[in-house]
Amino acid sequence: MVIMGGDSDFMPVAQKIKAAGRTLIGIGNRRNTNKHWAKSCHEFRYYGALIAPPLADEPPTPAGQKVAPPSPPPDPAAEMLRRAVRLLAETKGEPWVNKGSVWHMVKRLDPTFDTKDHGHASFAEMVKALDAVVEVKKGESDHMLRLR
After folding, report:
1. Which of 26, 101, 105, 126 has the most CB atoms around it within 10 Å of its CB?
2. What is the pTM of this model?
């Protein structure tokens, strides 16, 4: 079931849908969507994430001017991946966890999480790009992840 909007009046509806064993997917905009309602969905997408953003042009740097690289901000995708793997590993009591389980944990922790918002086309590409955070090995049926 998909419900569009973002008003907190939907909260009882979300609870009823979940109680009925259904999957709730919400759609809304970043400015007007209630954060708590978005997090109550199994999955939540923002309108802006449904279409490809236009490419931004970088302003040119004047010749001869040296620009010091800014310190990298904490990567929210890396932090979310680290948190999901850590929670699953603690629950299982083993450091290696199934990659598919990690994605489900990420969506449970933050239904609004979208790999495209962090510059990755898919979860698999995000995991590959964040190889400094997790180690990957081939499992019996899926890849296994472990924190580095």
Report:
1. 26
2. 0.58
Rounded-to-integer distance, Cα 56 and Cα 70, Å: 19
Q: Is 22 exposed, middle or buried (0-12, 13-18, 19+ CB in 10 A)?
A: exposed
SS3 45: strand
Q: What strands, in cross-sheet order, belong to the sheet with 43-46?
A: 2-4, 25-28, 43-46
Q: What are phi and psi of 98, to 5 degrees?
A: -70, 135
Please name the residue that has the structure tokens 């923002």.
Answer: 46
- Which of 75, 68, 74 is closest to 120 using CA atoms? 75
Q: How far apart are CA 133 and CA 148, in angstroms?
A: 6
Amino acid at 71: S
User: How far from chain centre, in Å, is Cα 42?
Assistant: 12
pLDDT in tens, 92-140: 889 999 998 999 999 888 888 888 888 889 999 999 998 888 898 987 8
In the structure encoding, which two tokens stand for residue 24, read together?
A: 């709730």
Q: Tokens in use for 144?
A: 């296994």
- The Cα 44–Cα 28 span in angstroms is 8
